[in-house]
Description:
Strand content: 15-25%
CATH architecture of the largest domain: Alpha-Beta Barrel
Radius of gyration: 23 Å
Number of helices: 16
Strand order of the largest sheet: 1-2-3-4-5-6-7
Distance between the termini: 78 Å
Helix content: 25-40%
Largest sheet: 7 strands, parallel
Number of strands: 12
CATH class of the largest domain: Alpha Beta
CATH topology of the largest domain: TIM Barrel
Structural class: alpha/beta
Shape: globular
Order of helices and strands: HEHEHEHEHHEHEHEHHHHEHEHEHEHE
Number of domains: 3
Amino acid sequence: MTPVSTPALTGAALLLRDFSLEMTGKDTPKLEAAGESVPEGTRVNVTYLGNEDLPMRRSAARSARRLGFVPVPHVSARRLGSQRDLEEFLAALRADGTERHVFVVGGDPAHPHGPYGDSLSVIRSGLLQKYGVRQAGISGYPEGHPHIPEAALWAALEQKAAALAEEGLPGDVITQFGFDPEAVLGWIERLRERGIDLPVRVGVPGPAGVRRLLSYATRFGVGTSASIARKYGLSLTNLVGTAGKRLAKDFDLDFTLRDLSVPKRVAVFASRSDHCLLDLLWRHRRGELPVSVAMVISNHPDTAEEVRGFGVPFFHVPSMGPDKSAAEAEHLRLLEDNVDFVVLARYMQILSGDFAERVGVPIINIHHSFLFA
């Protein structure tokens, strides 16, 4: 038998060898549709977003495993409300056989929801190994972070790499997505100079239009968005307009640019009665409502299965008695950075003035009654 020679990989093909993908909890149908085009054994990162619940995250990781891929669930430190939350999540991964690889990140919330202020505290907890994790990824920022000084980023990366070594956990570094190859290469050189020899997976955005790239990039700050715009020949100055800038300066105004192609995210509050809630969900499914339903929050568990049947996360937050402070604190935790407005769909509770002031987004009451928001 004559052996068949395989051409050596060169150029882009070499860079793309052993590539990985990222999906959200809602992307399972898309992953299944693309399954035949993705090599078996490809690593698929599964996000840990605030508008996803445990069943959705588990389902996504299980689907990746079922399709022959290697699931890499994210663990978002600042979104964890307690050690119990972390152990519940890791135990669920172990039960599903999706626990071997994880990606530990700090997470988007400005303030921790529980005892874990950063990814380092999760790594040092010892719980990853307890529940069968065999490899942990950590994040890197070649183009910086809008809210964290560069010195702090390097210190955190060195500490996380050292903690992985101390815990006996193999790891790698997954970078934020970027557009400047020189910045990435220079950052990797500095990484090696600091003695960090972990493998590096460079984040690259998939095919997308400029507007969608800008919408993703806003998560990393206006500076990053502006640099993207310059690279693609799009001037934010022209978008704002000279008159707009002059008015903003003269009257000390703040303004925000929004990509109208990205639907606004809504959280629906409901109680036991389901007619307002289900009407919204059906209209959304039929494409009549140009929004993204991020979550449903209810003070009763009755509609949980129906809501999840629409692919929408459901959160049961009991609200009993005159003191609503604990329930409203949980509401604020779930909503933080995850929604653009709230709809009360026959939500049979009175929201406090403190909640209305702190929620930071508009509240719309669609139940015709004397209850006020």
